[in-house]
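Progress report, Aim 2. The chain analyzed during this reporting quarter is listed below.
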Amino acid sequence: MKKRSMLSRQIRIVTIAIFCLAYTFGVFQVLGQATSSKLIDAKVHSRALENNLLGDSADQQVAVYLPPSYETSPSKRFPVIYFLHGYSPENQVMEQGKQFQELMNKLIAAGTVREMIVVVPNGRNAYYGSFYTNSSVGGNWEDFITRDVVSYVDGNYRTIPQAASRGITGHSMGGYGSIVMGMKHPDTFGAVYSLSACCTSMLADLGPSNTSWRQALKFKSKDDFRADSFNSVYAIALTAMAAAFSPNPNRAPLFVDFPFQLENNLLVPNSPAYTRFQAKLPVNMVTEYAGNLLKLRGIYVDYGVQEEFSHIPAGSLALSRELSEHGIPHTFEVYQGDHNRRIPERLETRVLPFFSRLLKFEAR
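Predicted structure tokens for the chain:
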């Protein structure tokens, strides 16, 4: 009996040891898979940006995240998420790319999302933001994204080259760009997630009540741009919007027509620039592009309750109402958060799972 007891104990010890080894190996295997992803710092040449009046290079930086099995499964193809970053005086491309690498590795290892390629193209120009818009002054940034970047990614990586397998998302300026590109290019992108989109409508602090318009009207050249305070950055951003939405290549040195002008010390609409500017705002574009929006596999719009830019809640609500009035299915969410603080969490819990659910993981 004693020998049998000792034998049983030895068997239990060996069994536990084998289990521990298997568990440890499994953990290390998962971690190894999670850390075998790649983040590539690429350059894409764009004919659409050549000879722009702001002097920005036609060779633009693009971060490309490749998931773990990209290397280990050489015949496998992947859907692609395109992320458009926000307005900023600083370059954000690789910083955003590293954030996506960390989030994707974590979620793939946990089985929360399927493997996808993530692409972060640059959208920053001499005015700190292109608004991803075709402009006779800043160059054709919409074409850069929808034509040049997509063609480069499909031509250099194992993507599934169809709209149903491409999603587009972005934050703030990028949220604006994502919803506009979804409207205009359902043949390129199949689903849209817009995070805290700016500039959807000329309401609240995007209207004449914003004193930063007065500061912008005083700019004489780019030498006047000093991003040393919030109000200064806002005035530069309004100038960047005008360069995108109401450009004037004949009006050096800023090459813009502002949508407002001063009359008797009051800001009033400056026609026809005001009309041109308004035409580029998504709330005013829904009617024209309703048919395109109905082709999308999904639309998600959100913003935080503590949003600092008052035009974002007002414009997002107006956009959701406009989509609803045209019978366009979409998800609209208001959450506890401000303009920036909870964006990584939103990417993890909403954006990446959204595309993992909606994008097609096989070619048609």
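The mean pLDDT is 91. The radius of gyration is 24 Å. These observations will guide the mutagenesis work planned for the next reporting period.
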